[in-house]
Write a structure and sequence with these properties.
198 residues, 77% helix
Length: 198
């Protein structure tokens, strides 16, 4: 069974935060993937598996299953961007991993991704156009430069305060959600590895 340790992580140029977490949990000891998952989480272990020269081919099937299970968590997000039959096809492949479906599923997934990108581009363009028109109309409405300057200063101060508060709240929410997602991913991968007795 392959293990990893501090020296290998240093030689792979692991990030300082991940390396510090690993050292705090394991010191100079060799540890299994499951132990590293428990201390560092899925994101760090995925980075490690992508960068090491060690042969972890015994994990291939488990990692493919893990990737499909992770994709299933958000599968509903592509539903508006593909046909009902493509959606069912993608769900079937993610659920079973049937290699005979893989080529057709990739084609359906690419089509859905293209549709989503086009939708996002149109949405952004319309939003920018509406914003520009609204801004021009508001600017034309001001009849006095002094009033505009005072109003702009007040608005900027209020907007900055509101924006800072909103930004901090969203940042905290995103950070908490990201942390929870990676923690859940680590737990899922540990369970899969344990089921396969790896």
């Amino acid at each position: 069974m392959n293990t990893l340790n501090k020296a290998e992580l240093i030689s792979l140029s692991a990030c300082s935060c991940g390396l510090e977490t690993f050292i705090k949990a394991h010191g100079d000891n060799d540890v299994t993937i499951q132990q590293a998952l428990k201390s560092n989480g899925a994101e760090d272990v995925m980075w490690y598996l992508s960068n090491t020269n060690k042969d972890y081919s015994q994990l291939d099937d488990v990692l493919r299953l893990f990737a499909r299970k992770q994709a299933m968590l958000n599968i509903s997000l592509i539903k508006p961007h593909c046909s009902a039959s493509d959606y069912e096809f993608i769900v079937q492949w993610l659920s079973t991993g049937d290699e005979s479906l893989k080529s057709a599923v990739w084609s359906a997934a690419r089509s859905a991704a293209r549709s989503a990108a086009e939708s996002a581009a149109w949405s952004a363009a319309w939003s920018a156009a509406r914003s520009a028109a609204r801004s021009a109309a508001e600017s034309a409405a001001w009849d006095a430069a002094w009033s505009a300057a005072r109003s702009a200063a007040e608005s900027a101060a209020a907007s900055a305060a509101k924006s800072t508060a909103e930004s901090a709240a969203w940042s905290a929410a995103r950070s908490a959600a990201r942390s929870a997602a990676w923690s859940a991913a680590a737990d899922m991968l540990i369970d899969l590895l344990n089921e396969e007795k790896l």
